[in-house]
Amino acid sequence: MKEAHSLKICGTTTIGERGQVVIPAEIRKVMDLKTGDKLLVFCKFEKFIGLIKAVDLDQFLEKITGHVNEKLEKLRKKIKEHTV
Description:
- It is built from two helices and two strands; from the N terminus they run H-E-E-H.
- The chain is of the alpha+beta class.
- The chain has one domain.
- It has a two-stranded antiparallel sheet.
- A hairpin with a 3-residue loop joins strand 1 (39-44) and strand 2 (48-53).
């Protein structure tokens, strides 16, 4: 796997008869997923499914908030430059 923050195809899996999905071994290794780990399942536009370890959610949200704040600050600077 390359960059940790880019969206990419990391393997394939098949939904079993009972709705179970096997996470490819490479992903389990990279994400340090172990038997019994709790995962939060997200969906978007009824087309995308994402998984995150429940214990990592706070850190993930902090990272997203940081990126949003950086973008807002850049936007504020541009607005200020054009209104002065």
